[in-house]
Design brief:
globular; about 10% strand; alpha/beta; about 160 residues; 3-stranded parallel beta sheet; two-stranded parallel sheet
């Protein structure tokens, strides 16, 4: 906001994970409190309402061995709500969102900010990405498409062999 001179941006930080208090302190330190709303944990039934206010959804989870192969619930929530996404270029983000996200160089905050700005400035692209995400979620990523694989994996892990 300060560096890029944007006054048309507001952020909602939803959730109460480990970095919650640090992010609130950083917003104060950077004099961004008027641009950042930190909700903490919100009830599941409010997630869709909050996401409906977003022009761009961001997954700023950094590259590390766990995040690179883990599906982030928020990415699927963004997709289900037909929102365009900006995320670091991680293997699992690319699998989940595919063409429904712009990907920043891993752990490069400046590139992440550039990608957010690109989408904010391109409403047509945002709309297309949001539609893509909703369709991908419904046709590929929703639970009913993946439950069988998980049940089979648990079956293999829990199987006992005689003798």
């Amino acid at each position: 906001i300060h560096v890029r001179g944007r006054r048309d941006v507001a952020f909602t930080l939803a959730g109460a994970g480990d970095p919650f208090e640090d992010l609130r302190a950083l917003a104060r330190e950077l004099n961004l409190e008027e641009h950042v709303c930190s909700t903490g944990r919100i009830p599941d039934e409010e997630v869709e309402r909050v996401l409906a206010t977003a022009d761009v959804c961001v997954c700023a989870d950094p590259l590390n061995p766990l995040n690179d192969i883990s599906t982030m619930n928020k990415v699927l929530e963004y997709m289900a709500c037909a929102r365009p996404i900006v995320a670091f270029d991680l293997r699992e983000h690319r699998f989940s969102a595919a063409d429904g996200a712009l990907y920043a160089r891993p752990n490069c905050d400046e590139d992440l900010a550039d990608k957010i700005g690109q989408l904010l400035d391109d409403p047509e692209r945002r709309a297309k990405m949001g539609e893509y995400n909703r369709q991908r979620f419904l046709e590929r990523m929703a639970w009913e498409h993946n439950a069988g694989d998980l049940i089979r994996a648990y079956g293999r892990l829990c199987a006992t062999t005689p003798g």
